[in-house]
């Protein structure tokens, strides 16, 4: 934008573009915060009777994979929004908070099982799914 809209006459265009980019970055940050909160507070009663992977886990993992697909764009946005903050760490922080919210939610859902063995199986299956999915996503990057 700086090189295309050079000169004093285009100052307003450059400032508008910068303002728009900052608002877009702020909206992305708010969206991730809202998603994190929704994951943490998800109270669906979708019971997984046999301790397999919960639908919320696969939904969140797909969302995180989507973030990886657009990581270069998101890093640029975070860089615009957070001057002086490393954009890689910003994206990692957002991802970690979402994954922690999922873990917290799954811990709560695991307590619905009456059989302690199913509680542990449920948590193991979900964590294994999360790790395997993230590893395969990182291998593709």
Question: Could you explain the architecture of this structure?
Answer:
Helix 1 (11-41) packs across helix 3, helix 2 runs parallel beside helix 5 (116-140) and helix 4 runs antiparallel to helix 5. The protein is elongated, with a radius of gyration of 20 Å. The mean pLDDT is 87. It is mostly helical and 141 residues long. It is built from 5 helices and no strands. The longest helix has 31 residues, at 11-41. The protein starts with 10 loop residues before the first helix and ends with a helix. The relative contact order is 0.13. It has helices spanning 11-41, 55-69, 71-81, 87-110, 116-140. It has one domain.
Tell me the number of strands.
0
What is the helix fraction of residues, given as a range? Answer: over 70%
Give the termini distance in whole angstroms: 29 Å
Number of domains: 1
Q: Shape, please?
A: elongated
Unreliable parts: none
Main sheet record: none
Structural class: mainly alpha
The mean pLDDT is: 87
From N to C, what is the helix and strand string? HHHHH
Rg over C-alpha atoms, rounded to the nearest angstrom: 20 Å
Please report the number of helical segments: 5
Name the beta content range.
Answer: under 5%
Protein name: Exocyst subunit Exo70 family protein
GO biological process, one term: protein transport
Domain Exocyst complex subunit Exo70 C-terminal: 1-137
Family: Belongs to the EXO70 family.
